[in-house]
Design goal:
Oligomer: heterotrimer
Mean pLDDT of chain C: 88
Radius of gyration of chain A: 17 Å
Largest sheet of chain A: none
Number of strands of chain C: 4
Number of helices of chain A: 3
Radius of gyration of chain C: 32 Å
Strand order of the largest sheet of chain C: 1-2
Number of helices of chain C: 27
Largest interface: B-C, 60 and 55 residues
Largest sheet of chain C: 2 strands, antiparallel
Strand content of chain C: under 5%
Helix content of chain C: over 70%
Structural class of chain C: mainly alpha
Shape of chain A: elongated
Chains: A mainly alpha (100), B mainly alpha (503), C mainly alpha (672)
Mean pLDDT of chain A: 90
Chain lengths: 100, 503, 672
C-alpha cells in the first residue's frame, strides 16, 4: 500500500502551486484555475484519509465539494465575464476599485 | 401608590417622549402642549415626594425592587429608591425640564423631535438619580448622552457637529472607563462573596468590604469617569464647546443637571462603596478642585463669548462642589451637595440669559454689546440677578453653598495645618466677581452699542420671563431659607462622613 | 408689652416698601417715593420707641432673639435673629432718621427722573432694610449677609445712571465703571471678612455675638486665632469704610446721584465698617497688635485722604475725600481706645475706654454734618447743573438756606467749639493722645497726623464754602434758578439743627450710654463711662483742646485769605498747578492706575494666558489625540488596496505565520 505521506506530499505540492498561482498570475482565469487546484489538493487529502481510515464520509465530502466547486466555477467565470465586459480586462492587478 | 411612584416618575417622560415624537407634520404645533403636560407630571410627582419624604428615617425610601436578569453568572435588578440627596436632584431635574420646556415654548424647528429629546433626557437623568443598581445606573448614564448629542448636532450653532461629536466621544470614553470600574466592583464583590454570581445592587457592593488597595485603584477608575462629566480641569474641554454650540434648552439641562451626575456619582458610588479609596484620594481631589476653581475663573475673564464665559464659570463652580466633597466631613459634603443644587438653579438662569442674548440681539460677543439695559430692561434685570446669584451674593442660594464650602475647606485646612491653601480658594471669589461685573459693565451698562443692529431687538418674551422669574424666585427662596433643601441633604452627608470617618 | 419685642419689624417695614415699590411702584405717585418715606419714617419711629426703652433701661441689654437657620454640622448651627444693645440702637436711630430725611429730600432732587424713580426708591428702601439688618443682626454671618446687600445697593445706586445718563454716554460709561470698581474693591475686603468669619466659626464653633462676646468663652479660645480672625475682619472694614489701601472706590462712587452719596457713601453704609470694629470690640481688644494696626490704618487714612481734598475742584469729590478722612478718624479712635483696653486686659487693670465713645460719637455726628454737606451740595448741583466749583461762586445770594446750612456743617466738621464736630473730633484726638501719654510713642505720630488732618479739614471745607457761595459769580452761577424746593430745604434745616447741637449729647449722657467696658468678667457696651462733668472738665483743662481749636481757626483763616479775600494766591504754592505734589494729589497718588494695573496688567494677561493654554495645550491634547487616531486610521486604511492577490498573499502569510508560531509554541513547551 502506498504510504499516506505520498498523498500528502502530492496534495501539499498541488496546494502550494495553486497558492503561488493565485498570488502571482495576472489573468483572472488562471487565478480561478489555481483556486480549483487548491481545492483539489484538499480533496486529495480527504480521499486519502478516507481510504486510510476506512471511513467513507471523507469521500462523501469530496463529492459534495466537487459539486459545489462546479457551481463556484460557474459563478467565478460569470464574474470574470462581466468584469471583462465592464473594464475590458481580466487582469486582476488592474481591478482595484474595491479599496479605501 | 407609594410603592410604584418612582417607576411612574421615571417612565412618564418616556411616554411623553413617544407621544411628542408622534406629533409630527400637521400636528407639530401641539407638540409643545404635550411636552408641557408630560413635563409637569414629573414635577408634580417630585413635589409629592418632597412632601411625603420622611426626613427622620435613614436610608432609601420609596424602594422598588424587581429582578431583571438572573442567571448563574449575572444578577441584575431593577431597583429604584431615593434618599435626601437623590430627592433634591430629582426635584431639580423635573423642575428644570419643566422650566426649559416653558422657556422653549416657541421653538419652531421640529418641535416634536425637540421636546421628545428633552423628555428622553429627563428619563436618563431621573434614572441616574434614582437607580440603586450599578447596571441600571450605567444604562441611564448612557441614555442621557444620546438626546444631548442630537440636540447639539441638530439645533446647535455653526460648529455643532464638531462639538456634538467631541462631547459624545469624550464623555463616552470616560463612561467606559467608569464601566470598567463598575465591573471591577461587581467582580470584586462576587469573589469576596464567594458566589461567583455578579450582583450589581448598590447595597450589596457597599457591604462587600473591599481591601484598601482595591478601593484605591477602583476609586481612580470611577473618579475619572465622574471627573470628565463634572467636568474637572484638565478633562473639561468638551464642555465649553458643547455649551457654545448647544441650544439654550440643551445648555440648561447640560449644566443644570447633567454635570451634577458626575458629582452625584462621586458621592453615591465613590464615597459610599469605596470609603478607603476616598481617603486615599483626598489630596488629589483637593488639588483638582482648587485647580478647577481658579483655572475656570481665570479662563472666564478672557472670554469674549458670554455663553463661553458662563460655561467656564460652571467649571469653576463644579470645582467648588468637589472642594466641599473632598473635605470628607459632613459639613463639606453637605455644602458640596448643596452647591450642586444651587448651581443647578443659578446656571439655568445664566444660560437662559445667554440664550436670549444670542437669540434676541443676534450676538453674544461681549465687546460688541453695551448699554443693553436701556433697550432690554427685563433682560438686564434677569442677567444681573443671575450674575449676582452666581458670584455668591448673600440672601441668594449661591452664597450659602459657597460660604459653607469655603468654611468647611478652611476647617479641613486648619485641621491639617495648611491654612494658606484657603487663600487660593478665596482668590477665586474675587475673580468671579471680577468677570461677572466686568461682563455686565460691558454688556448691559454704559453707552448703547452701535456695533450691532438694534432696530429689531425685543425684550424677553412672556414664556421666557415666566421661566426666568420662577427660577429667580426659587433662588431667592432657597437663599433666605436654605434649610428647605439643606435638611434633606444633611443626613446623607452625615452618614457618609460617619462611614468615611471610621477609617 | 415692650416695643423691643417688635424690633424685627424695623427692617421689615422698609423691606415691605421695597417689595411694593419694586412691583407696583409705577402705579403710585412719585414712583413710590411716598411709600419709601412712609417706610423709613415708620422704621424711625419704631427705632425711637425702642431707643427710649433701651436707653431708659427698661429692658435688659443685649436683647437677643434667635431662631435656627441652618444646621451645618454636629456641633454647629447657624442662627438668624436680632441682637440689640446701645450701639445697635444708636445705629438704627441715625440710619432710619437720616434715611427718612434723605428720602424726603429725594422727592425734590429726583423729580425729573420719570420712570427711573421706581428703581431709585426701591433700591434705597432695600438699602435701608439691609442697613438696619446689618446693625441688628445677632451673629456675624447674618451681619455679613446684610453687609453684602448694602454693598449691592451701593453698586446699583452708584450705577443708577450707568445707562441713559442725563449727561450723555461718557457719563454712563463712567458710572458703570465706578459701580464696578466700588463693588470689586469692597469685595476684596469682604473676602477677607469672610475668611475672618471662618476663623471665628472654627475657633468658637459659633458665630453668635452672644457666644463670641462672652469673656468666659473667649478665654478658652486660642488668642492667636482671635487675633487672626480680628485682623481678617478688619480687612472687611478697610473695604467697606474705604480705608487705605482700599479707599479709592469712594471718590469714584460720586458718580451716583448726590442723595445716594449722602445716604450711602457718607452717612450710613461706609459707617458699617466702623460699626463692625465697634461691634467686634470684645474680640479686637484681645490683641494689642491688632488694635495698633487698626489705629495706624485709620490715622494714616485720615491724613492721606485729607491731602487729596486740598486741591480738588469737584464739589462732591472734596466731600468724598473728607468722608474718607473722617472715617479714618473714627477708625483711629477705636484703634487707639482698643489699644489702651488691650493693654489693660493684659495687665489686669481694666477700665472703660474713651476711644470707643469717641469713635461711635464721631460716627453719629459725622452722619449728620456729612449728610448735610452732601445734601447741600446736591441742592447746589441741582440748581447750577455742574459739580465744578470753579464755575460756581456767589451762590450765597441765590441760595440762602443752602449756604447757611452748609456753613453750619462746615464749622461743625472743622471743629469750631460748640458745634457738634468739635466735641467728637476732640474726643478722637484725645483717644490718640491717651496711649501716647502713657508711653506708646507711636501714638504721638498718630496724634500729629490727627492734628494735621484737622488743619487740612478746616482749610478745604472753607475753601469749598468760599468758592461756592462767596466771591463773584461763576459762569454756572448765572443761570442758577434760585433756592431749591421746600422738600429739599427742610431736611437741610433739620440736619443743620443736629449739626449744631448733636455734640451736646455728650453732656446729656451719650458718654455713659456708649462706652465699652469690662464689668464683672463680661464685656459691656454702655453704662460705665465717665460722667458728663468729667468730660467737660477734661476738655476745658486740657491744653491739647486749645491746640486743636487754634489749628481749626488757622485753617479757616488760610482759606479765607486764599479764596475769599484772595490776597494770597494759591497758585504760588504749587507753581500754578504744575508742581509735582499738586499733580500727585490730582492723580490721587496714582491709586486708580494701580488698581487698574492690577486688573488689566496683571490679572487680565494671566487670564489670557490661561485661556491660550486652555485652547492650545489642554484642548490641543484632546484634539491631538483625536487627530492622531483619525490620522493614523487614514494611513492604516491604505493597506486595503483592493487587489485580491494582496489579500490572498496576506492570508497565506498569516496562516504560515500561525503554523510557525504553533510549531514554536509546541517546541518550547516540549509537546508536539
Amino acid at each position: 500500500m502506498i504510504p499516506i505521506s505520498f498523498f500528502l506530499v502530492l496534495s501539499a505540492v498541488l496546494f502550494v502551486i495553486g497558492a503561488y498561482g493565485i498570488m502571482t498570475k495576472k489573468n483572472g482565469l488562471v487565478v480561478l484555475m489555481c483556486i480549483e487546484m487548491m481545492l483539489n489538493a484538499a480533496n486529495i487529502n480527504l480521499v486519502a484519509f478516507s481510504a486510510f481510515l476506512n471511513d467513507v464520509s471523507g469521500q462523501v465530502f469530496v463529492l459534495v465539494a466537487i459539486a459545489v466547486a462546479a457551481a463556484e466555477v460557474a459563478v467565478g467565470i460569470a464574474i470574470l465575464l462581466n468584469l471583462y465586459k465592464t473594464s475590458n480586462t481580466t487582469d486582476v492587478s488592474e481591478i482595484n476599485i474595491l479599496r479605501w | 401608590m407609594s410603592d410604584i411612584v418612582l417607576s411612574l416618575l421615571l417612565f412618564t417622560p418616556l411616554v411623553g417622549a413617544i407621544v411628542a415624537l408622534m406629533m409630527g407634520g400637521e400636528r407639530q404645533k401641539y407638540a409643545r402642549y404635550v411636552a408641557m403636560v408630560f413635563s409637569a407630571i414629573p414635577l408634580v410627582i417630585s413635589l409629592y415626594l418632597l412632601a411625603m419624604f420622611n426626613m427622620s428615617q435613614a436610608g432609601y425610601q420609596f424602594l422598588e425592587q424587581y429582578t431583571w436578569i438572573s442567571t448563574s453568572f449575572l444578577h441584575i435588578q431593577y431597583i429604584l429608591g431615593i434618599d435626601g440627596l437623590s430627592l433634591v436632584m430629582v426635584f431639580l431635574t423635573t423642575l428644570l425640564v419643566f422650566l426649559v420646556t416653558l422657556f422653549s415654548f416657541e421653538e419652531k424647528e421640529r418641535p416634536n423631535f425637540f421636546f421628545a429629546l428633552i423628555m428622553a433626557m429627563e428619563l436618563g437623568l431621573l434614572g441616574v438619580y434614582m437607580s440603586l443598581d450599578y447596571f441600571m445606573f450605567y444604562i441611564f448614564w448612557e441614555v442621557t448622552l444620546i438626546p444631548m448629542y442630537f440636540m447639539v448636532s441638530i439645533w446647535g450653532g455653526p460648529r455643532r457637529h464638531y462639538a456634538a461629536i467631541k462631547f459624545f466621544i469624550y464623555t463616552h470614553v470616560a463612561s467606559l472607563i467608569m464601566l470598567i470600574g463598575i465591573f471591577a466592583l461587581a467582580f470584586g464583590a462576587a469573589s469576596l462573596g464567594g458566589s461567583g454570581q455578579l450582583v450589581f445592587a448598590f447595597d450589596y457592593i457597599a457591604a462587600a468590604g473591599f481591601s484598601g488597595v482595591f478601593q484605591t485603584l477602583v476609586f481612580g477608575l470611577l473618579f475619572f469617569g465622574f471627573a470628565v462629566k463634572m467636568p474637572l480641569v484638565p478633562f473639561h474641554t468638551w464642555l465649553p464647546d458643547a455649551h457654545v454650540e448647544a441650544p439654550t434648552a440643551g445648555s440648561v439641562l447640560l449644566a443644570g443637571v447633567m454635570l451634577k451626575m458626575g458629582s452625584y456619582g462621586i458621592i453615591r458610588i465613590c464615597f459610599e462603596a469605596l470609603p478607603e479609596g476616598a481617603v486615599a484620594w483626598q489630596i488629589p481631589m483637593v488639588i483638582l478642585a482648587l485647580l478647577a476653581i481658579v483655572y475656570g475663573a481665570l479662563a472666564c475673564i478672557a472670554q469674549r463669548d458670554l455663553k463661553k464665559m458662563v460655561a467656564f464659570s460652571s467649571i469653576s463652580h463644579m470645582g467648588m462642589v468637589l472642594l466641599g466633597l473632598a473635605t470628607l466631613s459632613e459639613f463639606g459634603i453637605a455644602a458640596g451637595a448643596f452647591q450642586m443644587f444651587a448651581h443647578g438653579l443659578i446656571t439655568a438662569v445664566l444660560f437662559m440669559v445667554c440664550g436670549i442674548a444670542g437669540h434676541n440681539i443676534g450676538t453674544r460677543d461681549i465687546p460688541l454689546l453695551g448699554g443693553m439695559a436701556a433697550k432690554m430692561p427685563k433682560f438686564a434685570a434677569f442677567m444681573m440677578f443671575g450674575f449676582m446669584a452666581s458670584l455668591g451674593l448673600p440672601s441668594l442660594v449661591g452664597f450659602v453653598a459657597e460660604f459653607n464650602i469655603m468654611a468647611s475647606f478652611f476647617f479641613w485646612a486648619q485641621d491639617n495645618n495648611v491654612v494658606w491653601v484657603v487663600i487660593i480658594a478665596l482668590s477665586s471669589l474675587m475673580l468671579t466677581a471680577g468677570y461677572y461685573l466686568w461682563a455686565m459693565q460691558r454688556t448691559i451698562f454704559g453707552r448703547v452699542t452701535d456695533r450691532v443692529d438694534l432696530s429689531h431687538v425685543h425684550d424677553v418674551s412672556t414664556y421666557e420671563a415666566l421661566a426666568l422669574g420662577a427660577l429667580c424666585g426659587l433662588i431667592a427662596l432657597f437663599g433666605v431659607f436654605p434649610a428647605l433643601a439643606y435638611d434633606f441633604i444633611y443626613p446623607v452627608a452625615e452618614s457618609l462622613a460617619a462611614l468615611i470617618g471610621v477609617i | 408689652m415692650t416695643f423691643i419685642e417688635y424690633a424685627w419689624l424695623v427692617p421689615m417695614i422698609p423691606l415691605a416698601a421695597f417689595l411694593i415699590i419694586g412691583f407696583f411702584g409705577n402705579r403710585t405717585p412719585e414712583g413710590g417715593g411716598y411709600i419709601a418715606i412712609v417706610g423709613a419714617v415708620a422704621s424711625f419711629v419704631l427705632s425711637l420707641l425702642i431707643a427710649i426703652e433701651v436707653f431708659g433701661g427698661s429692658v435688659a441689654t443685649p436683647y437677643v432673639m434667635e431662631t435656627p437657620w441652618l444646621k451645618i454640622s454636629e456641633d454647629i448651627t447657624l442662627n438668624f435673629g436680632i441682637y440689640i444693645d446701645n450701639l445697635a440702637v444708636l445705629m438704627m436711630l441715625f440710619a432710619s432718621f437720616i434715611s427718612s430725611l434723605i428720602f424726603i429730600y429725594s422727592v425734590g432732587y429726583m423729580s425729573h427722573e420719570g420712570e427711573k424713580k421706581r428703581r431709585y426708591y426701591a433700591e434705597v428702601s432695600l438699602f435701608l432694610t439691609a442697613m438696619l439688618g446689618l446693625v441688628m443682626a445677632s451673629n456675624f454671618l447674618e451681619m455679613f449677609i446684610f453687609w453684602e446687600i448694602v454693598g449691592l445697593c451701593s453698586y446699583l445706586l452708584i450705577g443708577f445712571w450707568s445707562f441713559k445718563h442725563p449727561e450723555g454716554d461718557d457719563a454712563s460709561d463712567a458710572a458703570a465703571s465706578a459701580a464696578k470698581k466700588a463693588f470689586l474693591v469692597t469685595r476684596m475686603g469682604d473676602v477677607c471678612l469672610m475668611a475672618g468669619l471662618f476663623v471665628f466659626l472654627y475657633a468658637f464653633q459659633s458665630l453668635d455675638y452672644a457666644v463670641l462676646f462672652d469673656y468666659t468663652v473667649i478665654q478658652t479660645v486660642d488668642p492667636d486665632m482671635i487675633a487672626l480672625g480680628s485682623i481678617l475682619l478688619f480687612g472687611g472694614v478697610i473695604g467697606k469704610s474705604a480705608q487705605f489701601p482700599l479707599h479709592d472706590w469712594l471718590p469714584d462712587a460720586m458718580a451716583g446721584p448726590t442723595t445716594v452719596s449722602a445716604l450711602i457713601h457718607a452717612a450710613t453704609m461706609v459707617k458699617a465698617g466702623v460699626y463692625l470694629v465697634a461691634r467686634a470690640y470684645p474680640l479686637f481688644v484681645q490683641s494689642m497688635d491688632v488694635m495698633l494696626v487698626v489705629a495706624l490704618i485709620g490715622g494714616f487714612t485720615a491724613l492721606f485722604a485729607a491731602t487729596m481734598a486740598l486741591n480738588n475742584m469737584n464739589l462732591k469729590r472734596v466731600l468724598a475725600y473728607s468722608t474718607l478722612s473722617q472715617l479714618g478718624y473714627m477708625v483711629m479712635a477705636l484703634g487707639a481706645g482698643g489699644y489702651v483696653m488691650a493693654h489693660a486686659l493684659h495687665s489686669g487693670d481694666v477700665e472703660a475706654v474713651g476711644g470707643y465713645t469717641a469713635g461711635t460719637f464721631h460716627m453719629m455726628n459725622h452722619a449728620f454734618f456729612k449728610a448735610l454737606l452732601f445734601l447741600g451740595a446736591g441742592s447746589v448741583i441741582h440748581a447750577v447743573g455742574t459739580e465744578d466749583m470753579r464755575k460756581m461762586g456767589g451762590l450765597g445770594k441765590h441760595m440762602k438756606v443752602t449756604s447757611v446750612t452748609m456753613l453750619i456743617a462746615s464749622l461743625s466738621i472743622a471743629g469750631i467749639p460748640l458745634f457738634s464736630g468739635f466735641w467728637s473730633k476732640d474726643l478722637v484726638l484725645e483717644a490718640a493722645l491717651e496711649p501716647a501719654l502713657e508711653g506708646a510713642g507711636i501714638f504721638w505720630l498718630l496724634y500729629i497726623m490727627g492734628i494735621l488732618t484737622a488743619l487740612m479739614t478746616a482749610f478745604y471745607m472753607f475753601r469749598l464754602w468760599f468758592m461756592t457761595f462767596r466771591g463773584e459769580e461763576g459762569e454756572a452761577s448765572k443761570h442758577c434758578h434760585g433756592e431749591s424746593p421746600r422738600c429739599m430745604t427742610v431736611p437741610l434745616m433739620v440736619l443743620a439743627v443736629f449739626a449744631l447741637f448733636s455734640g451736646f449729647f455728650i453732656l446729656a449722657g451719650f458718654n455713659d450710654l456708649l462706652t465699652f467696658s469690662f464689668v464683672g468678667g463680661a464685656f459691656v457696651v454702655g453704662g460705665h463711662g465717665h460722667s458728663a462733668m468729667y468730660v467737660l472738665e477734661h476738655l476745658a483743662l486740657s491744653p491739647y483742646t486749645y491746640l486743636s481749636i487754634v489749628v481749626a481757626v488757622t485753617g479757616i483763616y488760610l482759606a479765607y485769605r486764599m479764596y475769599r479775600v484772595k490776597d494770597v494766591d494759591p497758585g504760588r504754592f504749587n507753581a500754578n498747578g504744575e508742581s509735582a505734589p499738586y499733580k500727585l494729589l490730582q492723580k490721587r497718588y496714582y491709586f486708580p492706575q494701580i488698581y487698574n494695573a492690577i486688573a488689566m496688567k496683571v490679572t487680565y494677561p494671566v487670564a489670557l494666558a490661561v485661556n491660550y493654554f486652555d485652547r492650545e495645550a489642554v484642548d490641543g491634547v484632546v484634539n491631538g489625540i483625536a487627530g492622531s487616531i483619525t490620522g493614523g486610521s487614514q494611513e492604516l486604511r491604505k493597506v486595503q488596496n483592493g487587489l485580491v492577490q494582496t489579500y490572498a498573499a496576506v492570508v497565506v502569510g498569516g496562516v504560515a505565520l500561525i503554523v510557525v508560531l504553533l510549531y514554536l509554541a509546541g517546541f518550547l513547551t516540549g509537546g508536539l
